[in-house]
Amino acid sequence: MLNTPKLTAVTFAAACGAALLVAGCDDPKTSSTPPGIKAQDDAAQKAAAQKMMAEKAAAEKAAAEKAAAEKEAAEKAAAEKAAAEKAAAEKAAAEKEAAEKAAAEKAAAEKAAAEKAAAEKEAAEKAAAEKAAAEKAAAEKAAAEKLAAEKAEADRLAAEKAAAERAAAEKVAAEKAAAEKLAAEKAEADRLAAEAAARRLEAPKGARITAPVYPEAARRGGKIGTVVVNATVDASGHVVSATLQPSTADQALQDAALAAAKTWTFTPATRGGKPIQSIIRVPVNFAMND
Questions:
Q1: Domain, as residue range, for 57
Q2: Residues ≥6 apart with Cβ < 8 Å to 218
Q3: Is residue 130 helix, strand or coil?
Q4: pTM, two decimal places
Q5: Residue 271: strand pairing partners
Q6: All residues at 6 or more sequence positions from 267 whose CB lies less than 8 Å from its CB, including other chains
Q7: Residue 182 covered by a domain
């Protein structure tokens, strides 16, 4: 262990370098300290110097860390301040934008309300004008319909009067025409009766019609049939000519009928009471009798 005065002198000497020893410290160059103690003092001085250097380094490191921490804190504070200022600016801008938007929306709403009010006013005025026009048109229509009805009634009464007058005139004319027609019809009937009496035609009537002789060969052969004779009778009632209508009867029967017709006599036909020549159709039937 070193004496305290010596340790103090060594520590001080290490701190002061080549400065003179004070407060009872001996000068290292002139000290009469034994070599063993001097070696111990050197080691102590070295250790003290190293310790001081370590403390200095630690202090410097602490100072550097403190400066770095202070710098970081300052930068952080500056960043936070800048962020706060930025946020405040953004908030102010957003508030300004919101205020402008609200003002614009309010202005738009006021404009829309004003336009709506104007449109409603215009629509109301238009509706009132249309209603007035419709009422005027209805009144005019009613007046026109009334006038037309009155005219139609007047026309109807006039037409009925004219129809009545016309009907009366037509009735008189019809009665006159009917009387004239009746007189004309009677006169025409009298004239026709006179003319009919003058030209009345009466057919000839058979006075003597003898049956034809049935041909023997036809009888044996069983020939039958009907032959129609067209006989021309003169005003004296005699058959002046005779023809036959087409027939399917046997030829012998047709010849027999034609021969018999030439012997017939008739009461002649008359017209207006006078005998005239005429043609009479006489059917002759040939049949087998049991």
A1: 4-74
A2: 250, 252, 253, 256, 286
A3: helix
A4: 0.34
A5: 201, 274
A6: 204, 205, 206, 207, 237
A7: no
